[in-house]
Amino acid sequence: MKDFDPKILAFLCNWAGYAALDFAGTRHLQLPPILEVRVMCTGRVDPCQLIEGFLSGCDGIMLVGCRKGECRYENGNYHAEVRASWVRRALRHIGINPERLYCGWIGADDEQAVKRVMDAFHTKAESLGRLGDAEGLEKGELESRLKALKEVFSGERMRWLIGKDLDMSGKTDVFGDPVSKDSFEKELMDIFRSEYDRSRILIASEDSARSVVEIAKMTAVNPESVVREVVVLKRLGKLSIEGIVEGVPQYKRI
User: What domains can be seen in the chain, in order of their start residue?
Assistant: First the structure.
């Protein structure tokens, strides 16, 4: 990995991450090569933006914002951390090392902290290797999985549920039964897996009509699950039967 220079994207909170980086610049501290994006708050960074970063060829992505309890917008950094945690879970599910996504919280005047976290993450990214190659995924398969992931996180269902993650623990469901954070996260992960399988099926069938067996081979989703999700996707008006070949239905994305 000596010749490998990782591509790293950093979303920096205007009030802490970027302020500390600017301070580090005035102190002439040497920092690793990282592409910085200045945002008003890490809580404004959408999960789809993180996934798009990986789709664009980044080997690692950072979120650097205010220390806990010091967010200019009260709890933006907490929302950022929750979203990032779900993106990490999703990356692990599709075979990508979740350590490629990092969250760090520092003070606005702590130039040493921003240098420390950037140096450490650059070293980590070097050790992880090039995205896709290190995971044993060919470029086409890597892009297909990430595109499906982006579709999942852009969907209304996952966006709403992730937004509820912070305040679900200790609450009750519609029947008045208590909801623990563990049970909520387990249910949300089950929903994520189903949504991901559906997105993979839609992407596999968008350029040409395909059979259940063909879709299963392309997506690594077992045929029984493909059949179940195809029924749902047809009902939702996202998939249709384009024809029948030798008695086998051919499905295509609408």
Answer: 8-128 (3.40.50), 155-253 (1.10.10.10)
